[in-house]
Design goal:
Number of domains: 4
Largest sheet: 5 strands, antiparallel
GO molecular function: ATP binding; calmodulin binding; phosphorylase kinase activity
Strand order of the largest sheet: 1-2-3-5-4
Family: Belongs to the protein kinase superfamily.
Order of helices and strands: HHEEEHEEHHEEEEHHHHHHHHHHH
Oligomer: single chain
Number of helices: 16
CATH superfamily of the largest domain: Transferase(Phosphotransferase) domain 1
Number of strands: 9
Subunit structure: Hexadecamer of 4 heterotetramers, each composed of alpha, beta, gamma, and delta subunits. Alpha (PHKA1 or PHKA2) and beta (PHKB) are regulatory subunits, gamma (PHKG1 or PHKG2) is the catalytic subunit, and delta is calmodulin.
CATH class of the largest domain: Mainly Alpha
Helix content: 40-55%
CATH architecture of the largest domain: Orthogonal Bundle
Keywords: ATP-binding, Calmodulin-binding, Carbohydrate metabolism, Glycogen metabolism, Kinase, Nucleotide-binding, Serine/threonine-protein kinase, Transferase
Enzyme class: transferase
Mean pLDDT: 82
Low-confidence stretches: 390-410
């Protein structure tokens, strides 16, 4: 029997009576190495949920089968999920069922799927949309860190979107609760999102270890990817990619960055600092100007000079001001006037974002220079070739443009980083 056909089979109902009595399993939503995720319906209420069915006897990436180790790891994940549940941007664990061979975790259903899939469909996100998503991610991370927990595997595939496109941080399989002052040294996570201090633990003896700062680094990688559609450190030679991470070597020189303001770039720089002691904290992130935009930022010194007290324009303004001061207060008119002022301010602010006229000759000569055309071209490319992207440890959008097969990074770490 083919593996996919085996995965389609539901676990023995006699071994999981509690789950089947309460929920009706439906179609498969996704698969992992040792688990299958299905949509399920609560029989009593008709509400939809997502059931993660973990096979305790499954073969791991290393080729081993250890049901006891799998059960202990799952119970640790459940413990952490119960500590962080209740936050609006963290996945809620609804129910848990255990049998001799399987563990059933019932989560809230996120119908919009993974952030990665959403990004693949839209190619890049605007600054405004990125601000919304990243604020939610950072607020979730702040809550996790307040519980002395480090996630260790933040990436677009582990961030789900609910029906309102709000984020839900999920997959706490690598998460760890820290004791005061505790540092971790084991290598886990996804290669492109690993922080330099994590890699150093597996390259140099006596490395001090890592802590919650690795989540901030991963968030910086996610933010970079959302804005321009590709990760900051990727290279088709895996060891070059790892060296780029170790050195914090990335740039804002690609054409996509020409349309992006300085605030998001500054925040990314502060998240991707190689020294974790100098890296921005999650509380500092949420106070960053990128998340606290002023309504009006233009320099109006020139306007002030033009409105000297002796000018005719200033005299007219003074006259109008005196008339308004002498007139009887009218709440309705004052409210309407305030609306007009706000509209005017917003329009002035948007002037610098107004697109310049585009001539046909210029579009033919250099279509990729124009942001709108660039997004259309990239969007079409990903719709045509998007199914080639491999999900999992080696997954990367940049893989669409490779001409040679990729090697598995897990084996690369074993062979190179532990020497």
């Amino acid at each position: 029997m083919a593996k996919d056909e085996e995965d389609d089979l539901l676990p023995d109902k006699d071994a999981a009576k509690g789950f089947y009595a309460k929920y009706e399993p439906k179609e498969i939503l996704g698969r992992g190495i040792s688990s299958t995720v299905r949509r399920c319906i609560e029989k009593e209420t008709g509400k939809e949920f997502a059931a993660k069915i973990i096979d305790l006897g499954a073969t791991t990436e290393s080729g081993e089968t250890n049901p006891y180790h799998m059960l202990e790891a799952t119970r640790q994940e459940i413990s952490i999920l119960r500590q962080v549940m209740g936050h609006p941007y963290i996945i809620d664990l609804q129910d848990v069922f255990e049998s001799d061979a399987f563990v059933f975790l019932v989560f809230e259903l996120c119908p919009k799927g993974e952030l990665f899939d959403y990004l693949t469909s839209v190619v890049t996100l605007s600054e405004k949309k990125t601000r919304t998503i990243m604020r939610q991610i950072f607020e979730g991370v702040e809550y996790i860190h307040a519980k002395s927990i480090v996630h260790r595997d933040l990436k677009p595939e582990n961030i789900l979107l609910d029906e309102n496109h709000n984020v839900k941080i999920t997959d706490f399989g690598f998460a760890k609760q820290l004791q005061e002052g505790e540092k971790l040294t084991n290598l886990c996570g996804t290669p492109g999102y690993l922080a330099p201090e994590t890699l150093k633990c597996n390259m140099f003896e006596g490395s001090p270890g890592y802590s919650q700062e690795v989540d901030i680094w991963a968030c910086g990688v996610i933010m970079f990817t959302l804005l321009v559609g590709c990760p900051p450190f990727w290279h088709r030679k895996q060891m070059v990619m790892l060296r780029n991470i170790m050195e914090g070597k990335y740039s804002f020189t690609s054409p996509e960055w020409a349309d992006i303001s300085e605030d998001p770039k500054d925040l990314i720089r502060k998240c991707l600092v190689v020294d974790p002691a100098q890296r921005i904290t999650v509380k500092e992130v949420l106070r960053h100007p990128f998340f606290n935009q002023m309504l009006f930022e233009q320099n109006i010194d020139g306007l002030k000079r033009s409105l000297s007290t002796k000018s005719r324009r200033m005299s007219r303004i003074t006259e109008i001001a005196l008339l308004r001061k002498q007139s009887r207060f009218n709440a309705r008119k004052k409210f309407q006037f305030a609306i007009l002022v706000i509209r005017a301010v917003i329009r002035i602010r948007r002037l610098r974002f107004t697109a310049e006229p585009l001539h046909v000759e210029e579009a033919i000569r250099d279509p990729y220079r124009v942001k709108v055309l660039r997004k259309v071209i990239d969007g079409c490319a990903f719709r045509v070739y998007g199914h080639w992207v491999k999900k999992g440890e080696g997954q990367n959008r940049a893989a669409l443009f490779e001409n040679t097969p990729r090697t598995e990074l897990h084996a690369l770490y074993i062979n190179n980083l532990s020497r």
